[in-house]
Amino acid sequence: MRAIGPECGDAVFGGEMYAGAKAQYSIDERQRVAEEFLEANLVKVLSMHVALERVRPAAAEAQRLYTQIRTLIPDILDQLKLVRRNGFELVVSLAVELPEDASEEIAVVGPRGLERGLTTDAASQVSFGYLPDTPMLYSRFQPVKDHADVAQLLAALPRAASKEEAFDWICDNSRLDHLEQGVRMMRRASHLYLRMIERLDRFNSFFTRRNFTALNKWGQHPNNAFDLKAEVNLERFSLSHSGRGRWEHEELVLTPNMAALTARGDWPGFE
């Protein structure tokens, strides 16, 4: 009697042939998916270049304003970052005296760090609204570099003016790894562009009359230990602070070019 081993099983049931066919099918399917994606979307690379160029002024203007704030008013920026870390709410804490016959132990709900069990006063707060979640208050914001990263990816892709040109490029670069690299680069460029636009939109949210009005009311409240003035005159946004800090006095008038800041391109989606 002959023993049936794994080699015989492979031969009888087609194990090796099946595995090989399955692997080849997977490769063919990946090739098909990559080719179809590139044939449909390579023609959009030109539109991507145009959209990216249109947003260049916004990236440059945002970088200029961000650098001004970081270098010229560091104490004000640190205070606004503290507001961000505390949930973006512009809050001033108040101390309210209680009657002498009040309970000796009062549960207090107030800002972090406030002791519980006060006997002579309780804590209350007045809120002036919330700061927007803007990259202006973040430690790292590099819109010019973000723009350059997208440009670098697009530069490596063909500027196909028609589907025929896209098809020719696919034929000339028919290796699977080349095709999949092209797909990854297009998707990566799109992801970085949309993320850059989202960050620029949130950056712009800092420059509103409503935001500066809230900042000024908060900064000028008599119970606020940090004196801050925030004013808007036409398109001039001013921030100033006097008191202890790295600098005895800080003042900066920001004149954002709103036409540049709001410049956007028409970025195409994928098919």
Describe the fold and architecture.
The protein has helices at 6-13, 15-41, 45-54, 56-72, 74-85, 143-155, 163-172, 176-204, 209-219, 258-261; strands at 89-97, 121-130, 229-233, 236-242, 249-254. With 271 residues, it is of the alpha+beta class. It folds into 2 domains: 15-88 and 131-261, no CATH class; 89-130, no CATH class. The strands form 2 sheets. Strands 3-4-5 form a 3-stranded antiparallel sheet. Strands 1-2 form a two-stranded antiparallel sheet. The longest helix has 29 residues, at 176-204. The model is unreliable at 103-122 (pLDDT under 50).
Give a brief outline of the structure.
The chain has 271 residues and is of the alpha+beta class.
Brief descriptors of the model:
elongated; 271 residues; two-stranded antiparallel sheet; 52% helix; three-stranded antiparallel sheet; 10 helices; alpha+beta
Spatial strand order of the main sheet: 3-4-5
What is the subunit arrangement here? single chain
Tell me about the biggest sheet?
3 strands, antiparallel
Number of strands: 5
Order of helices and strands: HHHHHEEHHHHEEEH
